């Protein structure tokens, strides 16, 4: 590369912001349909089970993508993978714009999930390539910001502007186009290496040093993402059940969850990883107890308070997981290790949500399902706490 070409590249700071914004856009695109499911249901007459299945196929597609192309950017570079992922994501948004029924929604979510899986590992690893400390922080904050922005933006556009099932996707298309130009201008953050085709084979390989820590944080990541999945898929409907409200209030429920998650990341950024995770678990427990009481008492105010505590639990739990794992891996291992952590997270994000959708129809309705789901998340939180205590005990014994 010539000196002139190098000078045209984005600076490391701008590149880090660009990569964080890409994760925000991809996550925003994944939550943008949430406030629209009520409109889709009214138009195409499908059940809550279909809603959660449409939601969950995204998680399955993300998992498949992470298992195959999650490690690819370690071999071919971050830029090519990101450019391809942005192009595929834009295709998914076009399918959403043209959707005329459930099959198109499912197709759009599958394509969207494939793109997100490819982009997540590459963008997350790219931020760590530039600055491990700030990259870890950005990796923790970006999903929450994307979740909140996507849901609230979609709700506002649906409520106040024309073309409710199309406009939000067109806005996201423009944002992704701009980010694609940014990727063209950014420097490559990793040295490509051989083995690109071999990396596409689905396999789970971890450096020995990270196996124990990842096993310890897995229950935490699963629990907090299970909570996020429930609120993203069924939260707006639950708000409408508690209070005959506008679509905006349903989108606001996801926004509150996400904002408090991001705030927790900022407040806890300098604390040890174990402290951050314990704080997240504690907030998760408090949030679920408040949610249980609020749903039983038909309290919309209490429900939003529970959402806020749940958001803190999500932010703390996921940030603590990242802070535990990322310092232990080398540059050429980052995408693969982060991809595995996201695989655990998206299993938690998708599987319980599908079960919840089934229970809404066949197990007693939305409110009862919300109560049962809250209890299940409480159980997961206890499992996560026990895993952390055991890991801490083993660490102390090993240090003697």
Automatic annotation (TrEMBL):
PROSITE patterns recorded: MFS (PS50850), SUGAR_TRANSPORT_1 (PS00216)
What are the subcellular locations of this protein?
Cell membrane
Membrane topology (UniProt): Multi-pass membrane protein
Any single Pfam family the record assigns to this protein = MFS_1
Organism's domain of life?
Bacteria
* GO MF annotation terms: transmembrane transporter activity
Residues annotated as coiled-coil are none
Residues in Major facilitator superfamily (MFS) profile domain copies: 13-396
> Which stretches are transmembrane?
45-69, 81-100, 106-128, 140-161, 167-191, 212-235, 247-268, 275-294, 300-318, 339-361, 373-391
Family annotation (PANTHER family): MAJOR FACILITATOR SUPERFAMILY MFS_1 (PTHR23517:SF13), RESISTANCE PROTEIN MDTM, PUTATIVE-RELATED-RELATED (PTHR23517)
Q: What is this protein called?
A: MFS transporter
């Amino acid at each position: 590369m010539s000196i002139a070409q190098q000078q045209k590249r984005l600076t490391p700071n701008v590149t880090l912001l660009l990569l964080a914004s890409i994760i925000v856009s991809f996550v925003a695109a994944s939550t943008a349909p949430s406030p629209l499911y009520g409109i889709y249901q009214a138009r195409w007459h499908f059940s809550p089970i279909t809603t959660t299945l449409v939601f969950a196929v995204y998680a399955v597609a993300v998992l498949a993508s992470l298992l195959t192309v999650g490690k690819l950017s370690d071999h071919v570079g971050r830029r090519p993978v990101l450019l391809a992922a942005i192009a595929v994501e834009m295709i998914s948004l076009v399918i959403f714009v043209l959707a005329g029924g459930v099959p198109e929604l499912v197709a759009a979510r599958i394509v969207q999930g494939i793109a997100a899986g490819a982009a997540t590992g590459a963008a997350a690893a790219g931020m760590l390539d530039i600055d491990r400390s700030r990259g870890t922080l950005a990796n923790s904050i970006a999903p929450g910001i994307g979740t909140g922005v996507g849901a609230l933006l979609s709700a506002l556009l649906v409520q106040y502007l024309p073309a409710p099932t199309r406009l939000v996707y067109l806005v996201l298309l423009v944002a992704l186009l701009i980010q694609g130009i940014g990727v063209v201008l950014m420097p490559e953050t990793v040295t490509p290496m051989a083995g690109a085709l071999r990396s596409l084979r689905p396999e789970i390989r971890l450096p020995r040093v990270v196996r124990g820590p990842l096993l310890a944080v897995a229950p935490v990541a699963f629990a907090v993402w299970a909570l996020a999945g429930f609120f993203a898929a069924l939260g707006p409907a639950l708000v409408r059940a508690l209070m005959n409200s506008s679509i905006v209030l349903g989108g606001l429920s996801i926004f509150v969850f996400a904002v408090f998650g991001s705030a927790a990341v900022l407040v806890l950024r300098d604390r040890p990883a174990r402290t951050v995770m314990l704080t997240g678990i504690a907030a998760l427990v408090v949030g679920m107890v408040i949610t249980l009481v609020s749903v039983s008492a038909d309290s919309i105010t209490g429900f939003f308070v529970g959402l806020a505590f749940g958001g803190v639990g999500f932010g703390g739990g996921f940030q603590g997981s990242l802070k535990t794992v990322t310092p232990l891996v080398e540059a050429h291992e980052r995408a693969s290790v982060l991809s595995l952590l996201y695989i655990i997270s998206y299993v938690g994000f998708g599987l319980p949500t599908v079960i919840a959708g089934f229970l809404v129809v066949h197990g007693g309705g939305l409110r009862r399902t919300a109560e049962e789901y809250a209890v299940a998340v409480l159980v997961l939180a206890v499992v996560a706490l026990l895993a952390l205590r055991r890991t801490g005990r083993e660490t102390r014994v090993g240090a003697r």
